[in-house]
Structure formats: structure tokens, C-alpha cells
Amino acid sequence: MRRFQITAIIVALLIFPIQASAQELPEGVTFDVIATYASDIPGVERVELQKFTLAPGAKLENFPVENVEFCSSTQGIIRVTDETTGETNIYAAGSRWQPKIGHKASVSNPGTELHVHWIYAFVLKK
Q: Does residue 100 contact residue 75 with C-beta atoms inside 8 Å?
């Protein structure tokens, strides 16, 4: 049954986008909500497909990870620091990771080209 629910979620994510929006961030950083999907997952208000970019040298520091997120890098490199644990990782195109909910994080682009990654964010009910 669980496998069916996950498959149904993935199909819904691909077929039924509800809305898109953008959010203002520091220079060199962009974050766009590409699509928002309704959710019937207990405790999850909605699922968002998000696109996050960092220009070379750009950074975003000490922000809270408030939702369950699955990240996939498609271009460039990104340095991700879990400020709660002090752990730092560098991810290149093709990498996938999951930030820890409830932690603070910082990200930067130490490379020479634009970094792009996509996020499926399971936005929790408040």
C-alpha cells in the first residue's frame, strides 16, 4: 500500500501543478516555486517543486530548514553547511541530498559557473 501511495504522489507531482510563485533573495541567489501540488499526506499541507540558483560567489547564510526536502543538483557546484552540526558537503551536478529538518543551513557557490538545483519540498502543516 505504501508503494502505491508514493507512486500516486509522484504521478500527481508530474501531472497536477496548481500554481507558481517567486520570492526575493540576495543578489546572485534565486528561488522560484515552479509548481505547488495539493497533498493528502498526513501532516503535509502541500508539495512544492522549487528551483534554486546561486551565481558564482553567491551565498545564503544561516537559514532554517523548515520542511522535508529532497534536493537534486543539475548544474555547477554548491557548498552546503549544516550550521547545527557543522558538517559541510560540496555537491556537483548529478548529486542528491536531503537537508535535516529543524537544522540551520548555509549555502554558497564556490565554482565559476551558475549552480542550479531542484527541490521537492513537503511543506508541513503548522
A: no
Do 122 and 37 contact (CB within 8 A), yes or no? no
CATH architecture of 2-124: Sandwich (2.60)
Map out the domains of the chain as residue ranges. 2-124
pLDDT band for position 90 (50/70/90)?
very high
List, in order, residues 6 or more apart from 112 with CB less than 8 Å away. Answer: 56
Predicted TM-score of the model (pTM): 0.77
Residue 17 confidence class, pLDDT cut points 50, 70, 90:
very low
Burial class (CB in 10 A: 0-12, 13-18, 19+), 8: exposed
Query: How far is it, in rounded angstroms, from Cα 6 to Cα 123?
Result: 16
Concatenated DSSP letters for 54-77? E-TT-EEEEEE--SEEEEEEEESE
